Automatic annotation (TrEMBL):
One of the essential components for the initiation of protein synthesis. Protects formylmethionyl-tRNA from spontaneous hydrolysis and promotes its binding to the 30S ribosomal subunits. Also involved in the hydrolysis of GTP during the formation of the 70S ribosomal complex. It comes from Fragilariopsis cylindrus CCMP1102. This is Translation initiation factor IF-2, chloroplastic. Belongs to the TRAFAC class translation factor GTPase superfamily. Classic translation factor GTPase family. IF-2 subfamily. It comes from the Eukaryota. Residues 8-175 form the Tr-type G domain. It is found in: Plastid, Chloroplast.
Amino acid sequence: DDDDLMKPRPPVVTIMGHVDHGKTSLLDAIRNTRVTAGEAGGITQHIAAYQVDHKGQSITFIDTPGHAAFTDMRERGANITDIVILVVAADDGVKQQTADSIVCARQAGVPLVVAINKIDLEASDPNKVMTELTQYDILTEDLGGDVLTSQISAKEGTNLDDLLNKIMLQAEIQDLKANYDRNAEAFVVEAKVEVGLGTVATSLVKKGTLKIGDIFAAGETYGKVRTLISTDGKTRLKEVGPSTPVRIVGFEGIPAAGDSLIVVDDEQTARTLAESR
Ligand code: GTP
Ligand code: NA
Ligand code: MG
């Protein structure tokens, strides 16, 4: 991509950590308090990616909190995560899946922001967590390092603003940019058939701008963008830019999670690409 055409894009954030340390609670807390569009009944249960606004800037969260999903996406060569939030419960400390998450993020070359959760609990010991993390070469700010860290309670909504600020700060450091003005490339997060719509693929646009009428190949299938729906199911969109999750309608078949969706110039090219996979 031409450097001149690169413009800032929102960070794509994946939440990881040990079982029951509060990954989903954190997502819920952020979603409840930040998502402008609010909840949308049955459809929201299937959302795998969503975007929130923080101080006029967008942050995209991928709702695949398990590290298995993250590894799977990485193995498919889809380097879509910019930042990992490592959730560690302050009453439990660093556990097996915490360590796995650290390794996973490191192998993918994705920087961490640490969220020490459950600080509302009597038994919480944030300092112990920070000390344990040093064994994995993670030196938090409090210990003189440069790993951004927030002490939060997902349950009580404590310090979520601080965490979101740190995500934005980490994103600034990474200077995330994309070319908005080219044929789109997207990553399929989840695809399924819905009554009345046919195949709906929740996807994340990586590069370019995806528009109604765009012809594309996606994995072993292809199609033409008929409808673009916001991930809360409420808004029909004309186009979506980089780092934005969207529900796409218009597939001939059903793509797989992890497939790349690539916009091409004509249907023949799309078919040929799909058949060559
Ligand atoms: P898995 O997806 O099963 O790995 O768990 P998770 O990491 O998503 O944790 P989840 O959000 O399901 O929370 C696990 C438990 O911890 C639930 O009972 C939550 O209510 C509780 N919990 C989460 N955050 C907090 C917190 O900040 N404080 C307290 N006291 N409890 C919390
Ligand atoms: Na849980
Ligand atoms: Mg969970």
